[in-house]
Amino acid sequence: DPLAADQTLERTFLLIPPKTLENEWHDAMLGELAVFWDLVNTQDLGIVERVQAGLSNTAFHGGRMCYRFEEPLHRYQKGGAERRGGRQRAPPGDDDVQAHNYAIDESDTENLECVD
Description:
Layout: E1 2-4, E2 7-8, H1 26-56, H2 67-84, H3 99-102
Antiparallel strand pairs: 1-2
């Protein structure tokens, strides 16, 4: 649930088959699952918090940060927006190099890389 622009309340529901509770090891199995879930989500939380801090930085002017990795997300968002607008078409993929977004001089595209 969104609480603020930079804060969300997360809820978790674990749906399991009823017969799981009949297994004598169900407490141990669910405990291991909870530990793993907590590990993964704590790592994800750290990533999300760093991205949020980066997006809030005045040095960031908006736009996609790394087209090679975020292109599928862009296509998904673009497709959703088009469907909401009544258009039904698959968005094309991005070019291998989008020099106009990432280089000062469009002829200088040979060494473009995504950086941390």
